[in-house]
């Protein structure tokens, strides 16, 4: 979907007619997609891996090339800073993440960072001064695909998690977050969370179908839905697949199958917006002629209304206990993450809405179904997000795709929202 103004024909708000270079932004997306690029055209760039190190190194060089200095904190969050004319003011910040899912796409998180780089490039190219410093942040471990939960390092930054607990998280292979961070050379000395911020803006693909279906270029994001993660361990008994009668089994995988069905039913019963997912399963001993004695799996429950999430959890717990009893397995069901619904800053939302309007981009308000670092930043600073459409609403998939003109439009709105905040805040 392309619309007028993506190349800077409109939007005469704060910042005059400065606009991003959409072609350079698209080129950055394709260039960084090499780091962890998959044969299917997606990206596998799990946090704190060699691929992550390579894209971080690229980020430093690219930001330095547009006149920024780059630092990183004790959680590995990277900050690219363009000075302000009053450099004592706290920075207006932009950001997102460069880590991906195991079968991720080229846009999730990436356009927020590279769109921010496009903003810095536009300011640099035009010599446009801002009063506040402008900073671009690459957050560590947004996806939560390697270390649970998601948004871990923005969470430490915002005081939601302690640094100690975050550093001690382990991946499924037992590797500690801190060791992985040190291993790629990105454990900085600035304590995470000691960095001043005046406001935070995050550009992202929608990751859902609404903008595309309604032919909108810009989603004015008013908030993020509530989400909770759980870990379940079911313990039954390993036994012979041929000689153990059906009535004498304690089959942990059978119980898991029934619980997966229950997650699905609970989400459907709490509609229209509720969603429930089991995305990770480890079956043990995972041998074709052994009745499985132990299963570990995860659950993700979400709804824009925290009360609905609470009811889903209660209903699922009852169902799961009944299933465990019926299958003769022991259950440990632990809630490992609770990220309540978030409402973004009205003035920042309004700036995005006005800016989209001034460019003539078709826009609508929208609530995010996905988690974002902005959800935690909203706790400590005026925050909002800008969405652009993605094809078929598909995300967390190697085929994830978005149009260059839409990404450029989103980055132009990001630029103007940042300049609006520069003019509006600390005036
Ligand atoms: C992050 O991608 C999430 O919404 O889980
Ligand atoms: Mn993301
Ligand atoms: Mn994601």
How would you describe this protein?
It contains twelve helices and 16 strands. With 427 residues, the chain is an alpha+beta fold. Strands 1, 2, 3, 4, 5, 6, 14, 15 and 16 form a nine-stranded mixed β-sheet that branches. Strands 7, 9, 10, 12 and 13 form a five-stranded antiparallel β-sheet that branches. Bound molecules: glyoxylic acid and manganese (II) ion (MN) (2 copies). Residues 143, 150, 370-371 line the site of glyoxylic acid.
Layout of secondary structure:
Elements: H1 22-32, H2 50-64, E1 69-72, E2 78-82, E3 92-97, H3 110-126, E4 134-139, H4 152-157, H5 163-167, H6 177-183, E5 199-205, H7 210-213, E6 218-224, E7 226-235, E8 239-240, H8 252-269, E9 275-277, E10 281-284, E11 290-291, E12 294-303, H9 306-327, E13 330-339, E14 342-343, H10 346-359, E15 363-368, H11 373-377, E16 383-388, H12 404-424
Parallel strand pairs: 3-4, 3-5, 5-16, 6-15
Antiparallel strand pairs: 1-2, 2-4, 6-14, 6-16, 7-12, 7-13, 8-11, 9-12, 10-12
Helix pairs in contact: 1-3, 1-12, 3-12, 8-9, 10-12
The structure holds glyoxylic acid and manganese (II) ion (2 copies).
């Amino acid at each position: 979907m392309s619309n007028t103004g993506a190349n800077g024909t409109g939007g005469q708000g704060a910042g005059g007619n400065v606009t991003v270079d959409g072609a350079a932004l698209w080129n950055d997306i394709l260039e960084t997609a090499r780091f962890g690029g998959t044969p299917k055209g997606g990206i596998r760039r799990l946090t704190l891996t060699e691929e992550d190190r390579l894209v971080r190194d690229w980020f430093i060089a690219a930001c330095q090339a547009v006149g920024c200095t780059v630092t990183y904190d004790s959680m590995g969050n990277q900050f690219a800073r363009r000075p302000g004319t009053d450099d004592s003011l706290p920075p207006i910040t932009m950001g997102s993440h460069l880590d991906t899912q195991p079968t991720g796409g080229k846009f999730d998180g990436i356009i927020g960072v590279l769109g921010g780089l496009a903003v810095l490039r536009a300011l640099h190219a035009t010599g446009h001064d801002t009063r506040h410093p402008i900073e671009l942040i690459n957050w560590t471990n947004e996806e939560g695909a390697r270390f649970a939960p998601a948004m871990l390092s923005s969470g430490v930054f915002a005081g939601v998690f302690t640094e100690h607990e975050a550093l001690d998280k382990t991946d499924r292979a037992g590797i500690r977050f801190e060791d992985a961070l040190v291993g790629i050379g990105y454990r900085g000395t600035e304590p995470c969370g000691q960095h001043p911020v005046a406001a935070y803006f995050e550009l992202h693909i929608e990751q859902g179908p609404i903008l595309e279906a309604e032919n909108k270029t810009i989603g004015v994001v008013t908030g993020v839905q509530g989400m909770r993660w759980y870990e379940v361990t079911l313990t039954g008994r390993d036994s012979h697949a041929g000689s153990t009668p059906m009535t004498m089994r304690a089959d942990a995988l059978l119980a898991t199958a029934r619980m997966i069905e229950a997650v699905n039913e609970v989400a459907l019963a709490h509609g229209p917006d509720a969603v429930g997912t089991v995305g990770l399963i480890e079956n043990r001993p995972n041998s074709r002629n052994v009745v499985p004695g132990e299963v570990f799996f995860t659950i993700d429950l979400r709804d824009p209304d925290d009360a609905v999430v609470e009811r889903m959890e209660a209903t699922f717990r009852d169902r799961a206990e009944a299933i465990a009893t019926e299958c003769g397995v022991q259950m440990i069901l632990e809630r490992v993450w609770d990220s309540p619904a978030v409402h973004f800053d009205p003035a920042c939302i309004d700036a995005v809405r006005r800016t989209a309007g001034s460019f003539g981009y078709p826009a609508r308000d929208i609530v995010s179904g996905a988690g974002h670092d902005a959800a935690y930043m909203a706790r400590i600073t005026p925050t909002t997000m800008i969405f652009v459409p993605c094809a078929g609403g598909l995300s967390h998939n190697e085929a994830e795709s978005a149009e260059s003109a839409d990404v450029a439009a989103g980055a132009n709105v990001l630029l103007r929202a940042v300049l609006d905040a520069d003019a509006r805040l600390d005036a």
